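Narrative of accomplishments. A recurring question from our advisory board has been how the design workflow behaves on a single, concrete structure rather than in aggregate. To address it, we present the structure tokens for one chain from the evaluation set, followed by the sequence designed for it. No filtering or post-editing was applied between the two.
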């Protein structure tokens, strides 16, 4: 839970509880941890869906490669309730811990960067 609160404070995320919150999360994979991170992202989505913590749409996971060959992922989805990350179940928190272990700080940005976004078009 401390991770969720810290990430919310660092990213300046604050919206009313009870309302959905769309986020874009950028994960900067540690070299050699790309597959493990991709798997953790997949399990995070599946677990959050099973527990009805997220909306079905929007959702997209992207993989990118920087010019130097380092891999990053971008995951866009909507929490059903903006308060969910602050009170995430232990199953979600355990996946977050795995994600933290598979990411690295890069270019002055944290290994996991969470930004609140809104859908412009579909």
């Amino acid at each position: 839970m401390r991770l969720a609160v810290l990430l919310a404070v660092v990213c300046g995320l604050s919206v009313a509880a009870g309302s959905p919150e769309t986020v874009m999360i950028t994960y900067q994979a540690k070299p050699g941890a790309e597959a493990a991170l991709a798997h953790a992202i997949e399990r995070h989505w599946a677990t959050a869906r099973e527990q009805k913590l997220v909306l079905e749409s929007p959702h997209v996971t992207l993989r990118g490669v920087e010019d130097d060959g380092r891999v990053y992922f971008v995951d866009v989805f909507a929490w059903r309730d903006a308060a969910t990350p602050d009170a995430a179940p232990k199953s979600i928190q355990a996946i977050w811990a795995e994600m933290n272990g598979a990411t690295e700080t890069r270019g002055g940005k944290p290994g996991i960067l969470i930004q609140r976004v809104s859908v412009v078009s579909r």
